[in-house]
């Protein structure tokens, strides 16, 4: 017969029990069994649970506590209230785990899980586990910048590395050679981690890239393209054939831009095929091929076989050699839409880079429709932003940058205007880990190939000359786009100074 239990006292439905009381019970039990302790007096513990009769739960509690236990009935809302309002201090939890006997396997499993969970909560893109002479440093890359999150004792290094190797199906007895693997998360199927190990002076280090499918629906507006820029993108993406090239250094968001274009074109009746290294997001309705040089599946050889699969739209993760460049140009010329990336500092340099990769100049002008140059800058944290004047040191740095001074002049903004103005500035808060920044946005430059640009390419003009010509017909470079975003309160001068170079 079902035993009935008193419901959780009304008071605890709206007020959190003290932290030290909730923490008497491992958080795992809260999540797995929907059970929490809400009161603990000298010799009585009160527990509310979704199923107070669960025998596993009861055994666990009986083992852990000798006090009198009173059970109460919790509802799902009660559990949700606790889960949502009970802020976790991951750093503390991680350190607490490593204080207990090191080498304890259960702790290592929990520790590995906690590190991944912590990284997901902070929206990190990468996790680095790095041994130093005396410690193990755990760093996360958040919004493009590495932060030391927690420093662990060296004693747990071997066990922790082994744990991540097991999770990613790597050989745990191989320490001298780098290995690559992947972790699929059981409870979050949209997220996986690409894992790579490398031997260093103080032992093996692990770097993990977090790949999150839930970002795949990212829209052009969301990335920071203005209405005007979005129109240019659309106009070119809808052309029947030709190339759109995204350019920028590693980590500048090029691939995300291409994904947003693929999302635009995704519809029944067209075959989208991609060659990627790595496949960053799973794209519904597309055939995605992972480059694997170990078995000779390179961008060039992959593209050759892909062209026999009757594609309409082809995305090539990166063009970095002449063979791939020539094949991609050929594919674009023969009626395919080709999206790709080239590693150059700005959009005009892509055109000269193609010529350097042996693509004939007339071929370049025939196939390239649009080049998008880009960088990512951090956004001012909206939780702690305040309007304030620029620091003198920033004003000085601005003054030293000739390129930025020229743009400001075009924008009719003088140094003394800057001194008087106030700008949106993050003060630092919990949400932004005291950095004053949260999330990132792109700064873009879009170079469409019109008649004048064609002529410049055929003359093998320098990227600087191409840029000057383009500016005459309305081209706006990414630094200008960035400064407009500073004046709009989205980012800061520091960010634009950090991510662009003096030209
Ligand atoms: Zn903040």
Features:
503 residues, alpha/beta, GMP Synthetase, Chain A, domain 3, Beta-Lactamase, Rossmann fold, 3 domains, 7-stranded mixed β-sheet, 22 helices, globular, binds zinc ion
Can you put this structure into words, describing what you see?
This protein has 22 helices and 18 strands. The mean pLDDT is 90. The termini are far apart. It is globular and about 90 Å long. It has helices at 11-14, 19-22, 27-33, 55-64, 76-85, 90-99, 105-121, 157-167, 220-223, 227-237, 254-265, 299-307, 322-333, 347-356, 361-367, 392-400, 402-410, 415-420, 451-458, 463-472, 478-487, 493-499, and strands at residues 35-40, 44-49, 68-73, 126-131, 135-142, 145-153, 179-184, 191-200, 203-212, 242-247, 272-276, 286-290, 313-316, 337-342, 368-380, 385-389, 422-426, 437-448. The strands form 4 sheets. It has a 7-stranded mixed sheet with strand order 12-11-13-14-10-15-18, sandwiched between helices. The longest helix is centred in the first third of the chain and has 17 residues, at 105-121. The protein folds into 3 domains: 11-85, GMP Synthetase, Chain A, domain 3 (2-Layer Sandwich); 90-214, 2-Layer Sandwich (Beta-Lactamase); 220-499, P-loop containing nucleotide triphosphate hydrolases (Rossmann fold, 3-Layer(aba) Sandwich), CATH 3.40.50. It is an alpha/beta fold and 503 residues long. Strand 5 and strand 6 (145-153) form a beta hairpin. Bound molecules: zinc ion. Zinc ion is lined by residues 381, 383-384, 426, 428-429, 431-432, 436, 438.
